[in-house]
Amino acid sequence: MSQFTFSSESVSEGHPDKVCDYISDSILDACFEQDTQSRVACETLVKSDHVVLAGEITTNAKLDYDKIVRRAVKEIGYTDESEPFCDTTLKIVSLITKQSNEIDQGVTSTTSQSGDQGAGDQGIMFGYATNESEEMMPLPILLAHKLTYGLAADRKANKVDFLRPDSKSQVSVVYDGNTPKQVACVVVSTQHTPAADQKRITEYVREDLGPRVLGAWWRKDLLLLVNPTGSFTHGGPSADAGVTGRKIIVDTYGGWGRHGGGAFSGKDPSKVDRSSAYFCRYVARQVVSNGFAKKAEIQVGYAIGMAKPVSVKVDTFGTGDEDKAAKYVMDSFDFRPRAIIDTLNLLRPIYRKTTNYGHFGRTGLPWEEPVAVAAK
Q: Are 373 and 290 in contact (CB under 8 A)?
């Protein structure tokens, strides 16, 4: 279709699933702060006044799970003791064990059958980049993130007094071919105090938040839906269950690029679900920035315990010379897990800052650094 509308959603750091992602990444960073060789696969579940930790962690770090969890919940903003989910009153259950030795022997270079650090699991990973925005991200997810980030920033700065941590946004963009033309619809659902009604919140979004964060993409006549049920006072984990890894499309490209199915949060970079997806994004950005294509998607496949990928594919969607792009990728980038970790310097406690508002398209992340100019 030459003209179509595409929609993407974002969720705030106070969404129950994102609370879980942030706790899991906080535990990962706590491990890396003491032991960069930690092997971490941490899952979190939240509901009412409970936080349940599960997964496999092998580390020399001394961890105070209680302290880590309560700090993360406090930073998000769940500090109201009248609510079930509150940083000071939570009940925390830990079901964490050590990583399987059979996985370790395939990942560790001295014991793996490949003689190199092997992939922590089989799987396929994708990375995507497009020239339709300065951030090289699809516009719908980029704008949706701006809205939820703006809600959180206004709440923390006390710009308005009725916002609460749990919120969602959705942005629908009209395209003509590969070019975004205008925003057709914006949906904002935000938890709020009982004192604020739908009209007041709509006025805030229409007159302040929307124009400020969307800039030139805001139009007064776009369809704006704010808290479409009428009210949203009961939210967060007090109302809904959350689980790590359930917002994988929010975390990536908003449904525009394909997804291999693996989540990111709570996983150390020996898990290629995370590290290779970051690297594929890094490579896709290089392809677009160097003019090989206007859009690029990289797919890589791995076998557990093996270092070299079983497949690498470059797709430019007809926007460039695919053969030249593929040759550039194969000649210039090393997709082995150890090479990815070294290239992006991933054995650091950097993961808590990746958790919210997208793992891609934000400054300060090594896979989003300025790209090198390729020889053509």
A: yes
Torsion from C-alpha of 245, 186, 166, 149, nearest 10 degrees? 80
Residue 250 within a domain: no
What is the number of other CB atoms lying within 10 angstroms of the CB of residue 364? 9
**Integer Cα distance of 35 and 185 in angstroms:** 47
Q: What is residue 271's DSSP assignment?
A: S
Token output for 182: 């205008």
pLDDT tens, position by position, 257-271? 899 999 999 999 999
Between helix 65-76 and helix 16-34 the angle, nearest 10°, is 130
Q: What is the pTM of this model?
A: 0.95
Residues 128 and 170 in one domain: no
What phi and psi, each to the nearest 5 degrees, are found at residue 243? Answer: -140, 145
Length of the chain, please? 376
What's the token pair of residue 69? 């969890």
Catalytic residue numbers read: 15, 17-18, 43, 56, 168, 232, 240-241, 246-247, 267, 271, 273
Tell whether 330 is covered by a domain: yes
Residue type, position 247, single letter: K
- Note down the domain range covering 174: 3-11+138-236
